[in-house]
Amino acid sequence: MSPQPLKLRRTPVRTCVTCRKTEGKRALHRFVRTAAGIEFDPGGKKAGRGAYLCAEIDCWRTALQRNLLARALQCEITAEDVQRMETHMKKLVPGAPAIS
Ligand SMILES: [Zn+2]
Known about the structure:
Layout: E1 13-15, E2 22-24, E3 29-34, E4 37-40, E5 50-53, H1 57-66, H2 68-73, H3 79-91
Antiparallel strand pairs: 1-2, 3-4, 3-5
Bound molecules: zinc ion.
Zinc ion (ZN) binds near residues 16, 18, 19 and 59.
C-alpha cells in the first residue's frame, strides 16, 4: 500500500479536552457555555464558546474529575451541569459515533 498524501481537509477538526485527540466535528460531543451554565449541544449548533469530548467514557469521567470542561470554557461548572453530563455519559456507547 502506498502512503496517502496529506490533504488539506475542509472538515473542521476539533479536539477532545481530555485526550487531545482530534476528530471531525461530528465525531465529538459538543458542550457550549451559556448564561445558564454548560449545556450539552448534540446538534453542534448553539452559539457560544464550545468545548468537545470524544466518545470515550473515560474522557468524560476524567473531564468531570479534573474540571476540564470548565477550564476549557473558562467558567464554573455547577452540580446541575455535572448531573446533566452524567446522564449523557450513561448513553454513551463505546466506539459509537457521536449523537448528531
Ligand atoms: Zn477523549
